[in-house]
C-alpha cells in the first residue's frame, strides 16, 4: 500500500509510553498509541490506526496490568507485529527512540549499537525517572526487530546552543572538566517542535524569533529561545532542576540535601528517590494529577490551593527572568499535558503581567480547539499561544535530516 519509508517512534516517559508509526514522506501517522499508568493497578492502553487499515486491525484491551516499561514495550511490539501482519504493503524501515539524556557525548541523532547503549546506560543516575524506560524500549526493539536500523534522539540536543556563561555552574572546575557537571537542559524535542509551530503561526522565520516556551506536564521546564535557538532553560545537569513538577522538587538550595542527610542519615539513593519521586506536587497534595488538584482547590482544599500558588509563582518567576534575558519576546507558548489542558494554570501564570505586554483572553483561554490556538487579548503586545506538542514527529524529522547527510 506504500513504498515510502516508515519509522516507529517510541517516546517513553516516567509512567507512560507513546508511540507512532509515521510515513516519512508526508508525515502521515499510520498508527499511534499510548500506555498510561505503568506500574499502577490498571494501565490504560489506547491505540488508533489510519482509516485505511481500521477494518483489518483488532483493537487491544483498554485496561490491563502493566508492571514496568519492559512489559509495556513488549505489548507495543505485539501491536506492531499485528499491524504489519494485518496491513499488507507496510514495512518497518527505521525505529527512533527518545532518550532523555545525551550527556557530554551525544549532540545529534546516533545509530544504536552496543557501545552507544552502554554509554546511555552509564547516564541512568542522571535521569532516573526516564532513562530506565528509554533503555528498556531500546533493548526490547533490538531483540524483536533486530534487522531494523534504530536511532536514539536526545532531549538534550536542542539545548547545545546555550552559551557557556549560561550552561556552566560556579563550581570547582574539575567538576566540569572531569565529571561533566553543567546545564544540559531537557524537553528539547518538545521545545524545538512548538518553536517551529509558533514560527509557522506567526508567519516569520524561526531564526528571527525570540520565544518563551513552557512545557508543563508531570515534568516541567521553561526555555528561552533566542533567534530560533535555545538560549537558556530551567532544567540543568539533570531534569530535577527548575520548575516545580509532578514528583520532582525543582529549584532547591543545594545545602538542603546535605542537611537532610546529616540529620536523618538516609543514603544518597534514598535522597535521590525522595527528590525525584516524592517531591513536587505529590509532596504538597499527595497527587501529581493537576486536574484533581484544581478540583480540590475549588472545593476549598488548602494544600491544593497552596500547591497551585507555588506552581504558578515559579512559572511567573521564569517568564519574568526570560523576558529580561531575551530583551524582546515575540510569543509566549504553553505546551505539554498541563500547558495544553489546564486553562486555570495558564490564566494564573499570565495574571498581572499586562504591564509587561502579556494579556490573556479569558474566553479564548477556555476554548482550546486547535493544534495551535491564540489566547491573548487584543490589548496584548505579545502573542500567547497554546500549541499541542508532538515529540514523536520531531524525532522522525530529526532522524530524516540526519540521514540526508
From TrEMBL:
Keywords: ATP-binding, Cytoplasm, Kinase, Magnesium, Metal-binding, Nucleotide-binding, Transferase. It is an enzyme of class 2 (transferase). It catalyses: acetate + ATP = acetyl phosphate + ADP. GO terms for cellular component: cytoplasm. It comes from the Bacteria. GO terms for biological process: acetate metabolic process; acetyl-CoA biosynthetic process. Substrate binds at residue 98. It holds the Pfam family Acetate_kinase. Mg(2+). Can also accept Mn(2+). Its EC number is 2.7.2.1. It is found in: Cytoplasm. Homodimer. Catalyzes the formation of acetyl phosphate from acetate and ATP. Can also catalyze the reverse reaction. This is Acetate kinase. It comes from Methylophaga aminisulfidivorans MP. The gene is ackA.
